[in-house]
Design goal:
single chain, 117 residues, mainly beta, Transcription Regulator spoIIAA, three-stranded mixed sheet, two-stranded antiparallel sheet, 9 strands
Length: 117
Amino acid sequence: MPQLDPLALEQPERLLGLLRDHGNVRHIFFGHVHRDIAGTVAGIPFSAQRGLHARFELALDRSGETVEQAPPSYAVILIDSANQRVVVHGCDFLERWPIYSAETGALVVPGTAPEID
């Protein structure tokens, strides 16, 4: 994201070389960068949570620091080393939205969605 590029590492190839040379790095976790981000670098999966306040608008085609209000978020990370599996579950909290039954579609718990101007 252009607005985050100034925060990049000064020597990214040096870090990537260390990660590749180590040989057993399975996942990189870091945070927070005000966006939920996941991908791969040097063949190693990575993920970051957005944090507890606002998030940067998803604007891949332009610079700027437009920030939008977002619910706070945390992640639950499940690591199964025997099967070489990592699962990251993101969870927003503090905002109450209506909850519906996946089976019937019926309203289970009424919520209070934020007002939209």
